[in-house]
Design goal:
Length: 296
């Protein structure tokens, strides 16, 4: 975990150098109080959406691998990392961010882009695909579920997780993210360790407390399974997996397959051995191979 945090810190500190050296430019003709977009490369369009408390920097390795083949649209959510919260300082986060991604696709005239989202970004990608229909070409969700608690306890409901989500909201909003991590270990005893799984594995780059608290609350309580039949684009689900029966990751294959059972067309499932939640950082070579197959 500490190694992953050091990698993420390095990504953040190197952001300006990466941008200058690799041709990333701000999307100057798109204005949003919810998201920022940087564009890199040429070719067919790929939208990359980071997870909770992460910025587009988590996609640097993927962007380096694809920039010569695709036109990448790197999304960051305002209020995550070093970005000021903007309009995300009040109200819901995920639904409005998804709406802005759809607006971006429409205003920029993107034709059936591929969408890749990690964790919370995967849920945003599912919302975009459900609402945009045939305007989306394909979707990859990375260690993301339409209802995260069901990955730990398949019978869990929003009502079950609500009290824990409220505590998590209060911890982040008023005590900060370090308190969340320590409190998360204690709360993880409930719901079969669901909260511990969320708090202990995310690529936490920090950000505005209110935005982090609200987004975490939504990640824990939003259930998108009823929206899955609205998705017409093919879906690929990538996730960390372990052959060790003692690891919680040994169960992910069946859990993810159950989570996406309501899709109108079966998803393609891609377990990546040796990866935890930050699949693209934990196993970058295997993850990049999965992305190449997805975009082929």
């Amino acid at each position: 975990m500490e190694q992953r945090r050091n990698i993420l810190r390095g990504l953040v500190s190197g952001a300006m150098l990466w941008s200058a050296a690799s041709g990333v430019r701000a999307q100057s003709d798109f204005s949003s109080g919810r998201i920022t977009v940087a564009v890199r490369g040429r070719g067919s369009d790929v939208i990359l959406i980071p997870g909770l408390a992460s910025t587009a920097e988590v996609w640097r390795g993927v962007a380096d691998g694809l920039a010569g083949q695709k036109r990448l649209h790197l999304i960051s959510v305002r209020g995550f990392g070093e970005l000021a919260p903007g309009a995300n300082a009040s109200g819901a986060v995920m639904a409005t961010v998804a709406g802005e991604v759809r607006r971006y696709i429409s205003e920029q005239g993107l034709e059936r882009p591929a969408v890749i989202g990690h964790s919370m970004g995967g849920q945003v990608g599912l919302r975009v695909a459900a609402d945009a229909g045939a305007r989306i070409g394909r979707v990859m969700v990375v260690d993301s579920s339409p209802f995260f608690p069901a990955l730990i306890s398949p019978q869990a409901t929003v009502g079950d997780i609500e009290p824990i989500a409220q505590l998590a909201y209060q911890a982040v909003r008023f005590l900060g993210d370090e308190a969340l991590r320590s409190r998360g270990r204690a709360m993880g005893l409930e719901l079969g360790g669901a909260t511990d799984a969320v708090f202990g594995t995310m690529g936490w780059q920090g950000g505005d407390r209110r935005v982090l608290a609200q987004a975490l609350y939504e990640v824990m309580t939003v259930d998108l399974r009823r929206r899955l039949p609205d998705i017409t684009a093919p879906v690929t689900v990538v996730y960390g997996w372990s052959a060790d029966a003692a690891s919680p990751r040994s169960r992910t294959d069946s859990l993810f397959r159950g989570a996406y059972a309501r899709l109108r067309a079966p998803a393609a499932f891609v377990p990546i051995e040796g990866a935890e939640h930050m699949v693209m950082i934990d196993q970058p070579t295997r993850f990049m191979a999965a992305v190449d197959r997805f975009l082929a």
